[in-house]
Amino acid sequence: MNKNTERLYNGIIKENPTFVLMLGMCPTLAVTTSAVNGLGMGLSTTVVLVLSNLLISLFRKVIPGGVRMPAFIVIVASLVTMVEFIMKAYTPALASQLGVYIPLIVVNCIILGRAESYASKNQPVSSIFDGIGMGLGFTFGLTCIGIVREILGAGQIFGAQILSLEWFTPITIFVMAPGAFLVLAVLVAIMNIVRDKMEAKGKPLAAPSGCITGDCASCGMSSTCTGKSTNSASAAKSE
Fold first, then answer.
1. Helix ranges (DSSP H) in the chain
2. Per DSSP, what are the bridge partners of residue 160?
3. Which among 80, 83, 81, 76 has a CA at the least distance from the CA of 59?
């Protein structure tokens, strides 16, 4: 598995932001009342993630360390503004449904976390694949949650009625806030069961690295973190 393929695999499976790292929980729980909302939020976040990773990687050697995070936020905020304007122009209904959660992509911990831990230390191409992998993993998680909530809460999937209301009574709690927590908990539990079964068969999924910031020096787990040497080596190589 080459480096770029590994970044895709890590984002979708090994370090899935929703089901493994448990990042971006605010939009995950708030907007996934339907599959369309989950897919829309996931794809818009993916676009911002890929472009921000690319730009931050390109400018990583000219951004002073002392203003690193403010510079990242300015880049991300500019991209989010562009995405918001495009969505309002071409998908106004979806933009209205997602509401304030589109501008809140600016402070999404997935975006800033990947900018700090990966894009600011690696080459542009690798950073693009990292953004694609994490973005697709986030989109997959939100869409799965949205599908389950929409089916149980309305008998629909992507807006199409699949369960007849003549015999199916929608469980409205699933399109409310408690339903998001219930569905997320069940899907995370299923992923943990799959992980355990694969380990029992001798084909374990690699454990998530758990590194968000990439700052090994100030990390309380630096003495036991298995990704420390990998992070250090990657940083040294990029320099």
1. 3-9, 25-30, 35-58, 68-90, 92-98, 109-117, 124-154, 177-200, 228-238
2. 157
3. 76
Q: Which of 88, 119, 105, 89 is nearest to 214 (CA)?
A: 119
Sign of the CA dihedral with 53 first, then 102, 172, and 180 last: positive
Taking the whole predicted model, whether its pTM rises above 0.85 is answered as no
- Of 26, 10, 1, 33, whose CA–CA distance to 183 is shortest? 33
CA atoms within 13 A on the CB side of 77: 7
φ, ψ (nearest 5 deg) of residue 29: -85, -25
Tell me the one-letter amino acid at 120: S
Neighbours of 90 (CB within 10 A): 9
Residue type, 94: L
Asked if residues 17 and 23 have their Cβ atoms less than 8 Å apart, the reply is yes
> In this structure, are residues 52 and 76 in contact, taking their beta carbons and an 8 Å threshold?
yes
Residues 221 and 210 sit within 8 Å (Cβ to Cβ): yes
The residue among 119, 106, 123 whose CA lies nearest residue 44 is: 106
Task: Read off the pLDDT of residues 109-140 as tens digits, 9 standing for 90 and up.
Answer: 899 899 988 999 999 999 999 999 999 999 99
Distance, CA of 192 to CA of 133 (rounded, Å): 20
- Alpha-carbon span 34 to 53, nearest angstrom: 28
Of the CA atoms within 13 Å of residue 182, those in its CB half-sphere come to 14
CB 115 within 8 Å of CB 56 = yes
Sign of CA dihedral 16, 20, 23, 29: positive
What is the percent of the chain where pLDDT is above 70?
A: 84
